[in-house]
Predict the 3D structure of the following.
Amino acid sequence: MWEKVYPSRIPFLFLTILYLFSAFYSSSSQEKCTLYSGLTVAFQRWGSPAAPIRVVALHGWLDNSNTWYEPNPNFQRSYPALFKSDVHILAVRNTLAPLLVGEGNIQILAIDFAGHGLSSHRPRDSHYPVVEHAADVVGFAEKMGWSTYCLLCHSMGVLIDSHFCYSNDTV
């Protein structure tokens, strides 16, 4: 009965389920580092470590570092029915990081915030305020040895970036 009422929603729901499980698939390598706070942060890397432009990519609400990843090139061939409507935008939007890296003068590190993707969770009695995420970005950059870098943000990442810029006098 549900298919008869909402037939156009089936591809959308299928893509949503694939997207929610995207934390377990990535075309770039998933790496981890432990911050000075003890939090383990998962991240993905694109570009050369020697690149002069360094970027930390911040994802949105209920998301992870796969916001920026390059999708499986076989995806469209495997699920052609999904590409017959406007729904396909969700499946192909995740190509920004590889496009930005392009010529090799940019390195992008996309992090999973605490409690997102493959990063560890905060202790049971703590919360996930923007202030803590902003501090994690600073700690992550310090751990990578970066003193200067750009922030690439989406959704919640923009809120974290705003707090980051407001609270840091070196920005």
Q: What stands out?
A: The two ends are 56 Å apart (CA to CA).
